[in-house]
Design a protein that fits this description.
elongated, mainly alpha, 2 domains, 100 residues
């Protein structure tokens, strides 16, 4: 079977664990598309806005924070990983809060 990259040079990028990338290099270059120094990260098409949650002093504060997080999840303004971390942290905090 003929492999179209048989004579292609491989990318010279070295990862932190010291292994080489190994992907085919761009024609006439020493890096692949992904590791080429002129490659720029794509601009975020919809930047996320920072927001503040209320201080968690009572269970009511926790309910307000929960409502804010749910609103931002529904509006796709919060990435799922961050939302999960916030909800888990809120759950832990709510266990120790006084009623109110």
């Amino acid at each position: 079977m003929h492999h179209r990259y048989r004579n292609a040079l491989t990318c010279t990028h070295i990862f932190p664990d010291t292994h080489r990338c190994g992907s085919p290099a761009l024609r006439g270059d020493t890096f692949c598309y992904y590791h080429h120094p002129t490659r720029r990260p794509a601009a975020n098409p919809r930047p996320r806005r920072a927001f503040q949650l209320p201080a968690l002093n009572t269970k009511r504060d926790a309910q307000l924070a929960l409502a804010e997080i749910i609103h931002r999840i529904a509006a796709n303004q919060l990435d799922p990983h961050r939302a999960g971390l916030l909800l888990y942290s809120l759950q832990l905090a709510a266990r120790t809060l006084p009623p109110g």
